[in-house]
Prior knowledge:
Structural class: alpha/beta
Low-confidence stretches: 1-7
Distance between the termini: 18 Å
Amino acid sequence: AGNRRLGTELGLLVLPSGMYRWDVIDLxxxxxxDFALVxxxxxxxxxxxxxxxxxxxxxxxxxxxxxxxxxxPLDFMSTGSAVRTYGVLLAEKRKVAAAFIAVQDAL
Length: 107
């Protein structure tokens, strides 16, 4: 158990309704149900930023298809880039949510 950047080995969901522990440790283990809270509040967001860990990796096809089916845009990038992008979009008052997979090393 390392000291992860987000303070946990788990991820973090940042939604208009608040911040929530996200029980995702890596992109390989991600499942459609991991986004249940996102879709519950989907009317309050225009898109989701997904921080995929240390490097940018494409989410599994079922995740991409789920977002397409729900008509909610999904943008994915490394967690460090996602955190920085989230800050900029929030400052622009954009309706954005984020799901960050924790990373151990510097962002």
